[in-house]
Design a protein that fits this description.
3 strands; three-stranded mixed β-sheet; 28% strand; 37% helix; 54 residues; flat
Length: 54
């Protein structure tokens, strides 16, 4: 599994990219941990950013 976490110009938005399996148990746990750190509504899957621009 490849996990990429990046921030755009607005540091309140963090994207998560999962290579291989998509939204498996471990990646969901990582997303929840990031949500605790940055706040819910600020952590997105890369596919959600591509198909649902914020």
């Amino acid at each position: 599994m490849v996990l990429a976490v990046f921030e755009d110009r607005d540091p309140s938005h963090v994207g998560i990219g999962i290579g291989g399996t998509y939204k498996n148990v471990m990646s969901v746990r990582i997303k929840r941990a990031l949500e605790e750190r940055f706040g819910k509504g600020r952590v997105y899957w890369v596919s959600e950013l591509i198909f649902n621009p914020v």
